[in-house]
Design goal:
It contains eleven helices and seven strands. The protein is α/β, with parallel strands linked by helices.
Length: 283
């Protein structure tokens, strides 16, 4: 079993140890290159990463003063030599056996993308946040071959679908739209996304997501990429969900309100990076 794992890390000294410890506990991790790209950081992310070298034999730490996730992903790719290739956010911890499941799904001579199951941690959040995710976790973007929100992995031929990562906010959405539903695989294993704690933080995160979708739709086309906005299909799925689960109507009102507000704000405010710090506090 072999492959490369690329972890962009910008000021991640608090959460990076958990990410690397979870990787160290993966069966077969000794066959993987684990490349941590510390980009534009002002904290101890690089030192924290190097401290895990005893746990992960194939750990490489790359430092660059240039920030930006796309730059970090491309720099990681330039150091990687193996496939499949796993792109992992530094705040994500994979459940045991997930790396093996990804390798088994992607060690093929076909273009494939894969990710494990996702679970949203809403403990300690306000009612608006809980209502939003009660709907969001049931919509097609999440339930039908999700690629992103913290991790995605590509077979060798899958990685050949594009050259370098473009300077886009939504790198995961860019990758997902390069693959048909039949080419996207959800593997055994799980990762947990700790969501924003307050509705104000959620709105900021969803505004950035809306800007990322608009940015992707306006970007120069990439052969094979479906860059169409998915508003209509999401609305249809929401109507069908409420037909089957009318008890979710109050949550749907919350979801719709946050979504509309985020889209309005996304057109009125300059494009900027927003990282929700409320969800990044260690509990």
């Amino acid at each position: 079993m072999h492959g490369s794992i690329i972890i962009p890390a910008h000021n991640e000294e608090r959460l990076l140890p958990g990410c690397l410890k979870a990787l160290a506990d993966q069966p077969g991790i000794e066959g993987f290159e684990v490349i941590v790209v510390v980009n534009g950081s002002t904290d101890r992310s690089a030192e924290v990463a190097r401290a895990a070298s005893d746990l992960i034999p194939g750990l490489v730490v790359v430092e660059t003063p240039t920030g930006g996730k796309a730059n970090a992903l491309n720099l990681g790719d330039s150091h990687a030599t193996l496939f499949p290739r796993i792109y992992l956010d530094a705040d994500i911890q994979l459940s045991p056996g997930t790396v093996r499941s990804l390798w088994e799904a992607l060690n093929v001579d076909e273009p494939r993308a894969a990710a494990p199951h996702i679970r949203f941690d809403t403990e300690g959040t306000d009612a608006v946040v809980r209502g939003f995710y009660a709907i969001y976790e049931r919509l097609p973007y999440v339930t039908e071959g999700l690629i992103g929100l913290g991790i995605y992995a590509l077979s060798e031929k899958g990685r050949q679908r594009f050259d370098a990562f473009p300077e886009l906010t939504a790198d995961d959405l860019f990758v997902q739209r390069l693959f048909t539903l039949d080419e996207r695989i959800t593997v055994p294993g799980e990762f947990v996304v700790r969501v924003p704690r307050r509705w104000q933080d959620l709105l900021a995160v969803r505004t950035r997501a809306a800007q990322g979708s608009q940015e992707l739709a306006a970007a120069p086309p990439v052969p094979g990429m479906d860059a169409a906005m998915t508003t209509r299909s999401t609305a249809q799925a929401l109507v069908e969900l409420l037909r089957r689960r009318p008890g979710l109507i109050p949550a749907a009102a919350v979801y719709s309100g946050i979504t509309v507000a985020a889209r309005v704000r996304s057109r009125r405010t300059p494009q900027q990076w927003h990282r929700d710090e409320s969800s990044r506090q260690q509990s």
